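Trying the structure run again after the queue cleared.
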Amino acid sequence: MLLQRLTEYGDRIAGELPAEFYREKQIHWVLDIAPDGLSAKLLKRKVSGRQRDQMLTMPVPYVQRSGTKVPPYLLVDTAEFVLGVPKAAKNGVTAKDRGEASRRHDSYRDLALRWASSAVGEPAAEAARTFFTARPEVDLPKEVETKDTVAIMVGTSWLHQLGSAQQLWGEEVRARKSGTADRAGLCLVCGEYRALLATIPEPVKKGAIPTTGGSNEGQLISINTAAQGREGLTQLVNTPVCHRCGGRAMAVLNHLVASDRHRRRFRDDGVLLWWTKRPEPDSAFAMFFDDQPDAADIEHLIDSMAASPGPASAERADTDAFYGLSLGLNNARLVVRDWIDVPLPAAKASLAAWYADHGVWDGWTGRARYFPLWQMALSCGRWQGERYAPDSAPHGLEAELLHSALHGTRPPARALPLLLQRVHADQRVDLPRLALLRLLLNRSPHPQDHLMPQLDKNSTDPAYLCGRLFAVLESVQEEALPDIKTTLRDKFFSAAVAAPSITLRRLFADSGAHFKRLRRDKPAARNALEKRLFEIYSKVSDDLPGHLTDVQQGRFIIGYSHQRHEDLAGKQAARERRLAAVPAQAAPAQETASA
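Done. Tokens:
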């Protein structure tokens, strides 16, 4: 199914893919052959890594090759093949290295001559045939290295881009990848009777998939030992794939891993590739994989999924589909961690549920906030005073959260204890952490764990009420002692979250001193806070829990945050009312002065 979807997508974007068995590469040197083929010069196109904008890159012939007697590519290859430049060891160039360089150059020359002889009527091919037959001397600059890539031009034509070169290279690869014996059969992908591959012709590019180990090229299907194959058979004997489908599937994979639009690289390990059945990808997914999604677009998605379908909806059923492929790398083999093939409306419903389950209310802005995957995963990392420590997110958590988002399932069980550990260690509850916490609880199978995005004044849950109570006690201290440096949260938050009964009773008793100060300095604030405090305390005083489980601690933290944001919103509203009242009071005074 995966190979079928890749080849279907490849058929749709054929114009965006390179020629068959071609891959994008950087060109370091250009061998410029004269139109008569009797001379050539080597032009330098090699630049440093800092000059990426000046690099010359283009699709060139490519196929995976291995072994000691590796065969050449057609026309574009390393300097060892094209120019016969031998490898240089620490002790200089050995006779063995010179012999291998000579062998590789001769095999490259034979393949180039075979192409030039077949390209009848092409002046550039005739010039190349003359050059490789006459073998004139070419001045080699000292900076030419064995592994540098060399391409060939005649006049203004790149030889490897000619149709005759592309055709011959396709035939050459099919001959190499058919194995020692020609094999034909029913292709597993297209269902047609065709010549079959012995091995997949092209791996995924080196470095395209993030990995914590050494980076290698990766094969999607690789069976090279008897222990790996069914009945001890190796290669693709039990996985019949024709040349066209195997080459196109791997070309599409390399196209996707190079596309910023259809790829999401995880910060520690792995990558997600996604596409849709129809030509234009849905904007909901472009928004989802954006690092900073727009809140208005998210709310529109949630509303559209929540709307009841009309009677004519069945006639307008969306036939589009969403495909998601999560890949990792194990040495030189690709690991398919997740494969998603679902109708597009179902995938969009999963995204809408994801946002609805984690959105949190921001008291300062007065609207809901939503967060990208990487930020929610990083919220389980260390806080360094002004930001989260880079690369401190638990390994693999971002990929696990992505799986939860796209499948509509619960996040990993390890996320809650990891998050609580960081909250206790950092004494910090910010919006990304609150969003992840709300997601974890809203996807619990127990309805009592599900919480609203903002303050729920009707909740009777003891853990939630304890969090609200601690927030009000903190506000009492802030009003009474605005310049205090060590707050209640700094000293007692972790203790209150873990064992609220002892801590909250003590803090409630100690609040009397703060209220005494407020009665003298801020009577209005004292009345409002005292009323709020006793209202919450009366609901939970007879049932203050001694210790809280991880889930209950999550409800405590959310109750605390909800109350804090509600208080912030109240302060903001009061400030706006005061500012609005100032011009109204100043207007009569100005009229009197004018009179």
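The first helix runs from residue 2 to 12. Worth checking whether this holds up in the mutant runs.
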